[in-house]
Amino acid sequence: MAVATAGRRTAFRSRLGRKIQDNLMAYAFMAGGIACFALFSWYPLVRGVILSFQQINFVTDPYWVGAENFTAIFDDPLFFTAWKNTLVFTGLALIFGFFVPLALSILINEMRHLKGFFRVAVYLPVMLPPIVGVLLFRYFYDPGFGLFNTILRGVGLPESQWTQSSSTAMISLVLVSTWANLGGATLMYLAALQSIPGDLYEAAELDGASAWRRLRHVTLPQLRFIMLVLLLLQIIATMQVFIEPYQLTGTSNPDTVTVMVLIYRYAFTVNQDFGMAAAMSVLLFVVLAIFSAIYLRVTRDRD
Amino acid sequence: MNRSRLRSAVGLLLVAGVALSAAACGSDDGGEAPASDPNAKVTLVINGLPPDTEAVNRKHFLDNVAEFEKLNPNIDVDAKEGKMDPQTFQSKLAGGQLEDVFYVYFTDPASLIAKRQVADISKYLDEFAPTKELRPDLMKIFSDDSGKVYGLPAKNYSLGLLYNRELFEKAKLDPNNPPKTWEEVRTAAKAIAGLGKDYVGYGDYSKNNTGGWHFTAEMYSLGGDIAVNEGGTWKAAFNNDQGKQVLQQLKDMRWTDNSMGQRQLLEWADLLQMMGSGKLGMYVAAPDNIETIVNQFKGDFNKYGLGPIPNGTATLAGGEGYMFNAKATPEKIRAGLKWLTYWWNNPDRIEAEYQWAAEQKTPVGLPEPALWTGEAKNKQQAAIDKLKNLPVENYKPFADATANIPLKVEPPNAQQIYAVLDVPMQKVLTDKNADIAKLLSDAETQVNSILASVK
Predict the structure, then answer these.
(1) Do A261 and A126 fall into the same domain?
(2) Which domain holds residue A38?
(3) Among all residues of chain B, which has the CA nearest to that of A149?
(4) pTM over 0.95
């Protein structure tokens, strides 16, 4: 019995050894990637969760404070304002950022001339470093000498306070964000549009379908998957908006303070408390993880 | 109940931990500072080195470092650029990159001390005589409640009303008689804004904590407060008639008189730039703003005047100084104090410094509240009298009145409070329907929660 067990064990070991030996190269190649993920993604993630339950001053050892960081952020009057603003921003950014690229891509796809030029023109803002784009808009939005008000004055329309008024601040930020990001989405739609088989349109035309019906019954159903993927990606990206409010309206403005801005305030300006910032980050992480899970589910089903 | 129990338990554990570690290390409560080898080689990392763009000041700083190293052959000074930046401070501390002796504003020490992020230097001060002549109220800013000292003040200022004398003349106002009340500021601002579309009568901040800073200054000017200590507990003290008056005045000037310009959400450099461009009439500022405006915008010292803070019940006093890294060794703390008492806190160097400034044609004689008491204070005044090179009569209204206006230091956790108070400032300047009572009451709730953490 003992001999049989020892024999089985030896056989298992040699099988395992062979398996490892066979795949040694693969493991070696993976090691670099795994180490990078572990060091730059998983470790900070775990550390962030731990930090959300700790108080730290970077001099003495951190100590556990239970859920105090979470109760502190729930007590902050800006907590719900920030979530509300983030959702409003995400909603507005989707209305503009989701449909404008779709419309643009269909328009560019239908063009007979200058298609290449417009493809590049639409993508150009993406190539600009985000901070440069935002600073450019800071000048455009200036209520005194800014470009937008100069144009409005020129055509005899009433001027706007843009980022400096409660009623227009958020929409002004959304415009910047849409302008800066629509290039990527437009190109993805264009690629999807070009992969729609031409015979579908031909058949529709033969059946006497108008341009609108072709769009409704051929183009949009064919784009459904890419539209869903982009929608989820945009939700995940726009919920993390930071540069636009940070640069254009500051970190104290209750009209535009977002979740990311609040995290920044907790860590670096108002509270200088990394525990509170980590607690808020964990909450944002949970919300984004839900959308990411849906995204993974959607793309896996497609595969 | 659970939370308070948990807090007490954590507190007890901490106390026990600290007690244990203190016992393990031997008692630290003796009167003497820990001994260190006076000849041991020390590399002292400091900041405050002027950037390349300020070539003259940089050279002067480095010349002094060289001179200091010559006098102290065992100390190597590693001078870094940069001053206090709250946005990078925590990261530098976490990464072990914080200098041994680092620059702070008067608004920083309270929270750094509360978070135990700075070293206690009290026991070393007896070895450095000049520190005894620093103003006690300024030393208090760098101390905790039990009197332990964590840093030294290096410069201080009080706020007044900076104005463009030329615009005053153009608007038929008397440049030698600047506004003394907020009512007069409003009238003067209206007259200056009336000069044309691009003219701004009065400017004020509302971004990156500068709005809260000016709100505080304006509250103090009316005799108000931002926070008061009631029986050992700090409470917000601005949700009252004075708070309303400050915001209402700004709201009226912005929307009724239209004398504050359309462009708002201004931060520190914006008003200096506007003053430099010659289109801004007045703003609340420290005297050293004049030097920056003249240097950066090729202005003329004769063009600017300085009046007292309007109403003048009290004026905000701020400033800067140096603190010590919590991990600094006794050798480094002694080397740091040697450097500070050689460079910033050295009464015997005051005249030489003013002499150097006068040779560089940089201003001597800007009205500043004294850093020193006693003999050192007299030395500073004598040096100013001897070497002043500015049209000091332009600053006479400020200098004359300041002697009778009490200086008031900033509230505890000032930067955090300023960030909250930016909001009412922003709102009244950007929303003509802003509800002042609600803004003040919201800010009060937030400031009270910040103050709850102040011991």
Answers:
(1) yes
(2) 2-51
(3) B262
(4) no
User: Are B194 and B323 within 8 A, CB to CB?
Assistant: no
d(CA A166, CA B294): 36
Q: Which of B4, B265, B270, B435 to mutate to test the interface with A (most CBs of A within 10 A)?
A: B265
A267 touching chain B per CB within 8 A: yes
Report yes or no on A62 lying in a domain.
no
Which residue is it, tokens 């001027």? A159
Identify the CATH number of the domain in which residue A251 sits.
Answer: 1.10.3720.10
Q: Which of B90, B207, B427 sits opposite A268 (nearest CB)?
A: B90
- For residue B306, the domain's CATH number is 3.40.190.10
Query: Do both A41 and A109 map to the same domain?
Result: no
> Same domain for A144 and A44?
no
Question: In this predicted structure, which of A13-22, B25-34, B80-89, B344-353 has the lowest mean pLDDT?
Answer: B25-34
Q: Domain for residue A168, yes or no?
A: yes
Q: Which of A144, A250, A270 sits opposite B265 (nearest CB)?
A: A250
Q: Per the CB < 8 Å rule, is B415 touching A270?
A: yes
- Could you say which of A75, A254, A272 has the minimum Cβ distance to residue B90? A272
Using a CB-CB cut-off of 8 Å, the residues of chain A touching B13 are: 63
ipTM of the complex: 0.74
pLDDT in tens, A217-231: 988 888 888 888 888
pLDDT at site A70: 96
Shared-domain flag, residues A261 and A211: yes
pLDDT classification of B21: cutoffs 50, 70, 90: very low
Partner B contacted by A299 (CB < 8 A): no
Q: Which two tokens stand for residue B47?
A: 């900041």
Interchain pair A71, B3: CB under 8 A: yes
Do A129 and A32 share a structural domain? no
In a domain, A270, yes or no: yes
Q: What is the DSSP letter of B126?
A: G
Query: Do the Cβ atoms of A269 and B415 come within 8 Å?
Result: yes
Identify the CA nearest to B422 among candidates A265, A87, A199.
Answer: A265
Name the 3-class secondary structure at B81: strand
Domain count, chain A: 2
Q: Looking at chain B, how many residues does it have?
A: 455
* pLDDT (mean) for B350-356: 90
Domain-located, residue B286:
yes
Q: How many domains does chain B have?
A: 1
Give the pLDDT confidence of B138-196 residue by residue, as tens digits: 899 899 989 999 999 998 899 999 999 999 999 999 999 999 999 999 999 999 999 99
In a domain, B179, yes or no: yes
Which chain B positions have a beta carbon within 8 Å of A75's beta carbon?
A: 449
Query: pLDDT by residue (tens digit) across B192-243?
Result: 999 998 899 999 999 888 999 999 999 999 999 999 988 888 999 999 999 9
pLDDT of residue B70 exceeding 90: yes
Q: How far is CA B72 from CA B37, B50, B79, B261, B346, in A?
A: 13, 22, 15, 55, 16
Q: How many whole angstroms separate alpha carbon A287 and alpha carbon B418?
A: 31
Nearest CB neighbour to A252, from listed B115, B419, B445: B419
For B13, nearest residue in chain A (alpha carbons): A63
Which of the four pLDDT bands, split at 50, 70 and 90, describes residue A303?
low
Cα-based distances in Å from B39 to B101, B234, B343: 20, 46, 21
What percent of chain B shows pLDDT beyond 90?
55
**Residues A110 and A40 occupy one common structural domain:** no
How far is Cα A215 from Cα B339, in angstroms, rounded to an integer?
A: 76
Q: Is B306 contained in some domain?
A: yes
The answer to whether B426 contacts A274, with C-beta atoms less than 8 Å apart, is no
**Would B66 be classed as within a structural domain?**
no
Predicted local confidence at residue A208, as pLDDT: 87
Query: What 3-state DSSP class applies to A200?
Result: helix
Alpha carbons A254 and B243: distance in angstroms, whole number: 19
In a domain, A138, yes or no: yes
pLDDT for residue A3: 56
pLDDT at residue A152 is higher than 80: yes
